[in-house]
Design a protein that fits this description.
17 helices; 10 strands; alpha+beta
């Protein structure tokens, strides 16, 4: 008997009829519907979660290295009194964009407008540098950085200002243990500074901890006259650190300790990557369960349609034709669910922040507290490569799920099926 043309119109017609609900086999269509919903939700959830994790990684990386630099140079043998000449030498290295000398020290901040206080990280920096600092430039909400060197004030983050009830023009009191040296030991230094600018980086932790003051004032405040504690380098591409390290060491001339943002934040970003990978595996199980539903639904359909299969075989349908009919039936569920999940996932991923704000208003709750998640908004970045992987994996699982039931249908003996008819 001559075999029929693969995927002939009658195979598609029969497969589509099997997908429609019938009184005698309504449960099969119910299982097919749940399989469709499972695959759709699995694909959509995978796309949304992976996009949010990508957004977290991108935003956190941009904010962390945008305000902290990419490479850090510290003194190895003698204090950094030659920080100006050192910065001028290393900034000439190809790939280096900025070299900013700073004084860094911890302090306790308080104000007369609020009880208590907060630990802060004070940074001494020049006006010409702070206006070019990627994490600060363009984030000043009130006040100004103009005349920063001569104003005698400080710039603080929005969250710190809220905690201490400070506005531009108010005074913030800073206390440091690195005070003046006396015959009785080191005396803590206490000094008040007017707030000249309030910035909002968008990362809650940074907005609540950083205080920027003019470099000469910071040198006096921390007893480090004429020196810097660190030179922060900003590269044109933060991922190309290894290619410029040796050139920077050669340009430095003097011995320096060199660290980079990967070393300082390795634990944080490793944890973020582990969480991202675990979420991918967990959510893939949703797709796998939906694929198993396709298997069970098709096996029940084959059992229910055994009489029809026998009649088709006696009318001349080959085993290949029968197998293709059920392959089309199962694959249609997987393909339709994947396409619907793909579209739903892209829509949700592109509007995830708007959806979060709507749910906050609806439930009267904060579903994304900045204190816990560092960022003030829910980020989302769709990676086309990951979307292709998710869609391809789901289609593959859906097609593989149809092979065994389709093979069983093709192996059905028409004589046995019609014996008791």
């Amino acid at each position: 008997m001559a075999s029929t043309r693969p995927f002939a119109p009658f195979e598609w017609m029969i497969a589509m009829r099997y997908l429609r609900a019938r009184r005698s086999s309504g449960y099969v269509s119910v299982i097919a519907g749940f399989s469709f919903l499972g695959i759709m939700l699995g694909v959509a959830t995978l796309i949304v979660v992976m996009s949010v994790m990508n957004g977290f990684h991108k935003d956190l990386l941009a904010k962390i290295v945008g305000i902290n630099g990419h490479i850090f140079l510290q003194a190895a043998d003698a204090p950094l009194t030659d920080y100006d000449s050192l910065a001028k030498r290393v900034v000439k290295v190809p790939g280096v964009d900025l070299a900013i000398p700073m004084i860094e020290g911890s302090a306790f901040a308080s104000s007369s407008f609020a009880q208590g206080g907060a630990g802060v990280l004070v940074r001494g920096i020049r006006e010409s540098d702070i206006t070019r600092l990627p994490g600060i430039a363009g984030t000043v909400r009130t006040g100004t950085l103009s005349g920063f060197d001569t104003a005698g004030g400080v710039a603080i983050g929005q969250r710190l200002a809220d905690n201490l009830n400070l506005r531009v023009g108010d005074k913030i009191k800073l206390i440091t243990a690195n005070g003046a040296q006396t015959p009785f030991g080191i005396v803590p230094r206490i000094k008040s500074y007017p707030v000249t600018a309030i910035f909002q980086i968008g990362m809650a932790e940074f907005d609540g901890i950083f205080v920027y003051m003019p470099l000469p004032e910071a040198q006096a405040f921390f007893n480090q006259e004429g020196q810097a504690s660190v030179i922060e380098l900003f590269l044109k591409d933060p991922e190309q650190i290894d290619s410029v390290r040796s050139a920077i060491e050669a340009a430095a001339v003097r011995p320096v300790m060199m660290t980079d943002w990967r070393e300082r934040n390795r634990t944080f970003f490793d944890a973020l990557n582990v969480e991202r990978n675990v979420m991918f595996v967990i959510l893939t199980l949703i797709v796998l369960v939906a694929a198993l539903n396709i298997i069970s639904g098709l096996i029940m359909l084959v059992k229910d349609k055994s009489h029809d299969i026998a009649i088709l075989r006696t009318m001349g349908a080959t085993r290949g034709a029968v197998m293709r009919i059920f392959l089309i039936t199962g694959a249609s569920i997987g393909i339709a669910g994947t396409l619907a999940g793909f579209l739903l996932g892209l829509v949700v991923a592109d509007n995830v922040e708007a959806i979060r704000q709507f749910l906050n208003r609806l439930l009267h709750a904060n579903l994304f507290p900045a204190e816990l998640y560092f960022l003030s908004r829910l980020p989302s970045v769709v990676d086309p490569r990951e979307v292709v992987v998710v869609v391809g994996m789901t289609l593959l699982l859906s097609i593989l799920a149809t092979l065994y039931p389709s093979w069983r249908a093709a192996r059905l003996d028409p004589v046995e099926a019609l014996r008791y008819e």
